[in-house]
Amino acid sequence: MNIETLEWxxxxxxxxxxxxxxxxxxxxxxxxxxxxxKSGSLQGIPVTGVIGDQHSALVGHQCLxxxxxxxxxxxxxxxxxxxxxxxxxxVLSGVSAEARKSLILTVAYKIDGKPxxxxxxxxxxxxxASMVWLRxxxxxxxxFNEIQSLTNLFCTRFSRSICTLLGSQCKWFVxxxxxxxxxxxxxxxxxxxxxxxNDRYMYFSSNETSVFRIKx
Length: 216
Hints:
This protein is α+β, with helices and mostly antiparallel strands. It folds into two domains: about 10-35 and about 50-125, no CATH class; about 130-215, no CATH class. It has helices at about 10-15, 55-60, 90, 95-100, 130-135, 145-155, 160-170, 200-215, and strands at about 30-35, 45-50, 70-75, 75-85, 105-110, 115-125, 170, 190. The strands form three sheets. Strands 3-4-6-5 form a four-stranded antiparallel beta sheet. Strands 1-2 form a two-stranded antiparallel ribbon. It is globular. The protein starts with 9 loop residues before the first helix and ends with a helix.
């Protein structure tokens, strides 16, 4: 989709992906009449809303005014900021050059008869998935509820400054930012290791790395 015209992009569809625009469905607003359910127990019920998962979270958290941000967590972490409903050129005028390179401009939603609302999206591929890695791949925990208590136990044994140093130095988990310039080939690394690290260190560093990437 061309996010300025809100129509199928003819160049991308037909030249790049070799898909005739004529066979694609009509573009409609997020809230509009899409049709009726054809079969099953819900047959005949109208479908009046279609919106992506992260965009629906933006609406669900009532981030309906420019500047408001939602951050939700699951396998990864997805942060969306409402940029308002001005033209693409105008909404981007307040976005730094660095953010334009590393974040994604997207159409957040559109209501019939009203201009489209745009958002800036930052996506981190691995956050909650790192906890699954600790459990399933490394066998260091049996239950996710263990993570916080073990992290706290680690921090009571060492000073906060040492914890922060160790956590910032350990990159056990690759937290890819899903953007135009993503480098999926990057491999995890563990640097700055000393005699202190143990399993609690890995719990702590996984949490610290998640926070570091989200804050960045």
